[in-house]
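Morning!

As promised:
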Amino acid sequence: MELFFAPLACSLATRIALYEAGAQATFTQVDTRAKRVADGSDFFAVNAMGQVPVLRGDDGATLTENPAVLQYVADRFPAARLAPAGGIERYRLQQWLNFVTSELHKVIFIPLLDPQAPEGAKDYARAKLRARFAYLDHHLTGRDYLLDGFSVADAYLVTVLNWTRSTAVDLKQWPAIDAYFTRLHQRPSVAKAFTEELDLYKEEQARRSAA
Amino acid sequence: MELFFAPLACSLATRIALYEAGAQATFTQVDTRAKRVADGSDFFAVNAMGQVPVLRGDDGATLTENPAVLQYVADRFPAARLAPAGGIERYRLQQWLNFVTSELHKVIFIPLLDPQAPEGAKDYARAKLRARFAYLDHHLTGRDYLLDGFSVADAYLVTVLNWTRSTAVDLKQWPAIDAYFTRLHQRPSVAKAFTEELDLYKEEQARRSAA
């Protein structure tokens, strides 16, 4: 199993899930700005959308889109209990995965993280931020995780919340989210994944500055 | 089972799925602008995010977020074969559901459909449209559906593609998408759902104009 990732991008969620599962995997770094794989090859040949994560199985088939990749990893390693196996809780997992991917990742953070985004796009994202964070804060109040236990939805959420650090969004405004973010970082899989990718991110930034 | 919907909104996908399944369901209309249910009650009490679809089960529990609701309906009525039961094809379904919900619905159509969105947000959406429609057109070339057979991902995609009509996006630029859109509309469940909701949409517009 091979994960194509970019440092601190949403593919970090899959790294966390793989660490939780104790899975054997190859991690292949991608420069998503230059659309190049670490070996210099064209990343569009791996994913025509040019996005991470891509999970390539041992049969060569690729899977993309975070909620699909995360559910695949969770089901492939059921002992890690990263997703409810079935029943209404499985749909609840999909509900939260979709909230994170659509309302947080795409609606808010894509424009805020993109230096090329017009100011109107950033304003639009900021205007939508408050209702979404309030909704999430309400849900997390009195809860440790999005569902009853840690799941791949938490792996995705903690990855996305990390982007508040580079977009001047102060989590202190939402005490339950802030506590959740701190708590999740104490989890070994999360701490290890973030530490490793932060180093890779700094190296990437240094290479870009030198170029 | 009760579906909270707004005419021609993304909840139309669930109506199509319910028709495909021959399911008994109550359809409860919501004014998502005023955040009122048809009986005048507060829609935020049903869904704190104020969004459709909401599916309320006979036990009163609610499920939100389109990909979760659609997979729930598909699994609840397996005879309709609206989703692969398992295996890699199930993750492929989730991949396409996520492409539609994140890359098309949220990134492109939310800003384009919103009269309040700043011009910069609309420009940003338009700039992302071409790559996403080209990717989709390539996938649909030589295919009748997103997967091997009709699935809930098609119900969602045809619903979203319908928004091109009110956002001046000419599908003729992408022949495979254009043919797909026409073909899907010939499907009885899709034709019935669109016809009914178009009428409800016109009534809603008339009420808003009169107000």
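Chain A has seven helices and five strands.

Hope this helps with the figure draft.
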